[in-house]
Amino acid sequence: MQGREISPDKQLFLIPDPAAILMLPYSNDRMVIRAFDIDEALQNSGKDYLLVTGPTEMEVAAERVLSWQVPADTDMKSASVNLLLQSPSGRETFQSFTLMLKDA
Fold first, then answer.
1. What is the sign, positive or negative, of the torsion defined by CA atoms of 72, 75, 80, 84?
2. Is there a contact between 83 and 51 (Cβ–Cβ < 8 Å)?
3. Higher pLDDT, 74 or 11
4. Distance of alpha carbon 60 from alpha carbon 64, whole angstroms
C-alpha cells in the first residue's frame, strides 16, 4: 500500500523546544528527528537569514535576493524551501514554500 502524498511544505517542522527538526522524507515511510538549534545556527551564520533547506545551488545574495540557477538536466518537478529571517530588532519569521518547476 502506497502512502498518502504529503505536499513538500508539510514535510519539515521546526520544534523550538527541545531544538529539533522533524522531517518526513519524500518516501513518507518514517519520521526523522534531528537536533537543530535554529537560533544558534542563525547566530553562527553571521547573517540575518538562514536558508534551512532548499536545493543545493540555492543561495541568498548580499542584496537579500534568493536565487537558484536550476540545473538544465534536472528532473525535479518542485523544490521545497525553508528560510528563517531575522530583523535588526531581533524579530524572526520562518517561511516555507514550494517552487513549482515547468519544462523549458
1. negative
2. yes
3. 74
4. 6
Which residues does residue 66 pair with via DSSP β-bridges, in sequence order? 60
Residues 79/68, Cβ–Cβ less than 8 Å: yes
Beta strands in the chain (DSSP E): 12-15, 20-23, 32-35, 49-53, 59-60, 66-67, 78-86, 92-100
User: What does the alpha-carbon distance between residue 92 and residue 51 come to, in Å, rounded to a whole number?
Assistant: 13
Of the candidates 14, 12, 3, 1, the residue with the CA atom closest to the CA atom of residue 93: 14
For the entire predicted model, the pTM comes to 0.56
Torsion of CA 10, 11, 12, 17, to 10 degrees: 80
Q: How far is residue 46's CA from residue 55's CA, in Å, rounded to a whole number?
A: 21
In whole angstroms, what is the distance from residue 102 CA to residue 75 CA?
10
Whether residue 42 is predicted with pLDDT greater than 70 in this model: the reply is yes
User: Residue 3, exposed/middle/buried by CB under 10 A (0-12, 13-18, 19+)?
Assistant: exposed
